[in-house]
């Protein structure tokens, strides 16, 4: 009965459930974000005219961001579930890079549409929340 | 005076006069001129005084003796600022301490502007004009200073700018080279905003507008000018194989043999080639001023076998000048310039098979005087060695365009007939008109004018007109082919005549003076022909039927102000029309084509080529790119569904999400 209570007390599990939830939601949302941004870049390239060699960097950064996101979510999810701080810390570092890229798409892109502003703002908010939860989880694992 | 030297003159006797120069004689407090005394010398500061005495006048020269080069500050013996010398001098002429005259000089001298500084090697980088206009601030007109009301001027300090901030220049002159465009979120001017506008409006700054790069790049002229050369006449290889009908006749120098002929526009051209087996008879108008010497008749003609034959020329003088010359209304003076010119040339080409055997030319000469108009006549005839009549067509029994239609009068003893239309002459009256034969393949319309009096009897008029028009048709049969023989009736088609409806009963009722109804004034000749086959690849044309009908008009006497003129005009016309019909029924369809009608979109309900549209491009109702995009996305979705429904994929997905 005491072991059952301990198990029910949940004191042995350090993995953060909200963080895992956030990873799952982030994955779905990022798929939507990637397709939407790609579609909008295609739309902008047809409707507006880009100065010399501005379209290439925009597209390249989007694909780099996608790769980073996949890596980040995998590492974070693995670190959280196996209760190891190393992959989680690496995921935190990659989150910083992804956040910078998101800021690029929010402010420094060639043409920023209002829809761009909205989805990037949501993404940045998600990153912020994730970073907080990751720090908490790392603190829990370390101690 | 400009420059460091100035001259002046002292009038009067200069003996015993002392000249002196004083620097800055102005009282600085009051600004008044100081009274000077005669104690100066001929040098003051940098200034020199020189006097050249003369009889009654003396020349006085004041010169500056310092270096006027611009140099760095704190250097010596040169100018530190551009405005080098600002001084006031006074020149005094004294005699025994009494001032006789004084001259006031104010000098403002700038340094010599020869440049001795360094030239900067930095080139100003000009941005790409397509994306950044060069004059991004057009109102920045003065360099190094602030332009008032120009808010984009960078030389304006912020407190200066605050002074005129409310009244800046607007538009492109004020520096607004990127006007706000419609897709901006902040632009409120559009009345029609699309539904998606709140999401897809542009939020970013105005530096990147959609109008960037919309420049006309101009068209690039291709280097290498196309050669505007007239290609040399290539000598046809068929010279050695002989002439065929329609080939131009070539001379020894591989050029076309030319005789003046009538061009399509009507006027005569001098260098028209002669076509093998094509006769012509042209009349050209010319007068003395524009008379051109004809080609000399010593040009040798290629006979078709490779050797060249000489023209046999016979010169004759014209006997009947009236046929050729019409005199214009100019004065006949005794001394008129006359010249011997060619009035007519008759060429006869004797041919056999594909070669020319002989060329006989008869040239008629006569004298043409100034003021006369000459009608030159050039004829060419191709005679076969076999017969002396007009040429038989070599291997081409069908009608050729331009040949006269063969007609026969089977009812008369002399079977040869003719089918003609009017050839008017002079004023166009029917009394002076002649006939010209109907030529195959050439639709024509011609007519002449009949003079009718006001008291003309209508039935008499009808008869007259009908008789005149019937005189054009002196035949009952028309030959099917050009070589129809008079003895074989099957070679001929009978003319179908629709005679005018002779209404005798209407004579009494319609007998108003000056109006006659139902005058058959227009003759219509319709010839129906067809392609009946081909000989040696040349399609043969035969006449299948001929119909002659009459169209009626209402003739009305044309009065002037009063009906006093006794004669009115009635034009009568004859028109020829050639109608082509298919002589043969359509070729029966083979079994292959009957089986293949499944793919015939016009006859079937199901049109397979159009159904598989993006793969086969027969349908034109939808843009290809749209249909392709839809098809590809559909294929992508199908592929996605196929992959995702695979159990292997769900295993991979689960392991991915850990």
Automatic annotation (TrEMBL), chain A:
Top-level taxon of origin: Eukaryota
UniProt keyword Nucleus, yes or no: no
InterPro entries (alphabetical): Uncharacterised_TM-17 (IPR019184)
Membrane topology value: Multi-pass membrane protein
Key words, A-Z: Cell projection, Membrane, Transmembrane, Transmembrane helix
Compartments it resides in: Cell projection, Cilium; Membrane
GO biological process, one term: non-motile cilium assembly
Transmembrane helix is among the record's keywords: yes
Example of a GO cellular component annotation carried by this entry: membrane
Membrane-spanning parts: 21-43, 55-75, 87-111, 117-142
Descriptive protein name: TMM80 protein
Organism whose genome encodes this protein: Anhinga rufa (African darter)
Gene name tied to this protein: Tmem80
UniProtKB/TrEMBL annotation, chain B:
Superkingdom assignment: Eukaryota
Domain Tectonic-1-3 per the UniProt entry, residue ranges: 241-384, 398-581
Location of the Tectonic-1-3 N-terminal domain: 112-221
One cellular component term from this protein's GO annotations in UniProt: MKS complex
Keyword set includes Glycoprotein: yes
Database matches in Pfam families: DUF1619_N (PF25752), TCTN_DUF1619 (PF07773)
Keywords of this entry: Cilium biogenesis/degradation, Glycoprotein, Signal
Gene Ontology terms describing biological process: cilium assembly; protein localization to ciliary transition zone; smoothened signaling pathway
Family under the similarity heading: Belongs to the tectonic family.
Quaternary structure and interacting proteins, as annotated: Part of the tectonic-like complex (also named B9 complex).
Name by which UniProt lists this protein: TECT2 protein
């Amino acid at each position: 009965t005491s072991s059952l209570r301990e198990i029910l007390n949940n004191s042995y599990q350090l993995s953060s459930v909200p963080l895992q939830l956030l990873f799952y939601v982030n994955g779905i949302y990022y798929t939507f974000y990637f397709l939407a941004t790609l579609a909008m870049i295609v739309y902008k390239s047809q409707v507006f005219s880009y100065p010399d060699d501005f379209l290439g960097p925009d597209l390249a950064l989007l694909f780099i961001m996608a790769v980073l996101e996949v890596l980040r979510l995998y590492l974070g999810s693995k670190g959280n579930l196996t209760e190891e701080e190393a992959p989680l810390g690496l995921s935190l570092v990659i989150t910083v890079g992804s956040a910078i890229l998101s800021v690029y798409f929010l402010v420094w892109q060639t043409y920023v549409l209002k829809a761009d502003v909205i989805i990037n703002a949501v993404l940045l908010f998600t990153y912020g929340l994730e970073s907080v939860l990751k720090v908490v989880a790392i603190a829990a694992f370390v101690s | 005076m400009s420059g460091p030297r100035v001259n002046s003159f002292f009038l009067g006797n200069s003996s015993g006069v002392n000249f002196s120069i004083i620097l800055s004689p102005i009282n600085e407090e009051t600004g008044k001129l100081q009274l000077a005394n005669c104690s100066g010398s001929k040098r003051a500061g940098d200034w020199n005084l020189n006097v050249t005495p003369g009889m009654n006048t003396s020349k006085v020269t004041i010169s500056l003796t310092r270096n006027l080069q611009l140099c760095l500050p704190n250097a010596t013996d040169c100018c530190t600022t551009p405005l080098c010398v600002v001084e006031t001098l006074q020149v005094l002429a004294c005699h025994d301490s009494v001032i006789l005259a004084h001259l006031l000089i104010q000098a403002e001298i700038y340094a010599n502007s020869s440049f001795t500084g360094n030239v900067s090697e930095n080139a100003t980088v000009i941005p790409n004009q397509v994306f950044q206009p060069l004059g991004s601030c057009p109102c920045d007109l003065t360099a190094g200073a602030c332009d008032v009301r120009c808010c984009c001027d960078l030389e304006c300090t912020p407190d200066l700018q605050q002074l005129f901030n409310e009244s800046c220049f607007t538009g492109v002159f004020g520096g607004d080279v990127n006007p706000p465009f419609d897709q901006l979120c902040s632009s409120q001017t559009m009345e029609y905003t699309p539904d998606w506008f709140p999401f897809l409006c542009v939020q970013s700054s105005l530096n990147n507008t959609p109008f960037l790069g919309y420049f006309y790049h101009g068209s690039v002229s291709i280097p290498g000018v196309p050669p505007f050369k007239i290609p040399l006449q290539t000598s046809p290889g068929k010279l050695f194989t002989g002439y065929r009908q329609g080939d131009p006749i070539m001379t020894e120098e591989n050029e076309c043999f030319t005789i003046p002929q009538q061009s399509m526009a009507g006027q005569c051209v001098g260098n028209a080639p002669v076509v093998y087996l094509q006769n012509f008879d042209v009349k050209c108008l010319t007068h003395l001023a524009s008379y051109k010497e004809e080609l000399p008749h010593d040009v040798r003609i290629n006979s078709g076998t490779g050797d060249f034959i000489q023209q046999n020329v016979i010169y004759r003088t014209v006997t009947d000048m009236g046929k050729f010359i019409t005199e214009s209304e100019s004065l006949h003076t005794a001394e008129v310039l006359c010249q011997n010119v060619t009035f007519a040339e008759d060429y006869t080409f004797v041919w056999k098979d594909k070669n020319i055997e002989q060329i006989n030319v008869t040239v008629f000469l006569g004298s043409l005087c100034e003021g006369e108009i000459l009608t030159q006549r050039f004829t060419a005839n191709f005679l076969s060695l076999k017969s002396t009549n007009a040429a038989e067509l070599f291997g081409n029994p069908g009608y050729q365009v331009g040949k006269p239609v063969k007609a026969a009068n089977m009812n008369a003893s002399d079977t040869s007939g003719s089918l003609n239309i009017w050839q008017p002459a002079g004023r166009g009256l029917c009394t002076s008109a002649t006939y010209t034969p109907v030529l195959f393949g050439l639709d024509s319309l011609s007519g002449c004018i009949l003079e009718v009096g006001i008291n003309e009897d209508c039935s008499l008029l009808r008869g007259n007109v009908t008789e005149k028009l019937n005189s054009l048709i002196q035949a009952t049969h028309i030959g099917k082919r050009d070589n129809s023989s008079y003895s074989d009736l099957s070679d001929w088609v009978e003319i179908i005549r629709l005679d005018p409806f002779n209404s005798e009963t209407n004579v009494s009722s319609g007998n108003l003076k000056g109006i006659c109804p139902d005058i058959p004034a227009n003759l219509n000749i319709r010839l129906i022909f067809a392609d009946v086959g081909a000989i040696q690849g040349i399609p043969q044309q035969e006449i299948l039927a001929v119909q002659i009908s009459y169209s009626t008009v209402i003739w009305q006497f044309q009065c002037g102000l009063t009906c006093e003129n006794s004669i009115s005009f009635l034009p009568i016309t004859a028109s020829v029309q050639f109608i082509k019909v298919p002589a043969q029924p359509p070729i029966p369809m083979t079994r292959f084509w009957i089986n293949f009608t499944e793919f015939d979109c016009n006859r079937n309900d199901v049109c397979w080529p159009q159904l598989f549209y993006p793969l086969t491009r027969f349908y034109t109702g939808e843009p290809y790119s749209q249909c392709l995009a839809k098809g590809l996305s559909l294929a992508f979705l199908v592929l996605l569904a196929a992959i995702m429904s695979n159990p292997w994929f769900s295993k991979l997905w689960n392991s991915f999400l850990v």
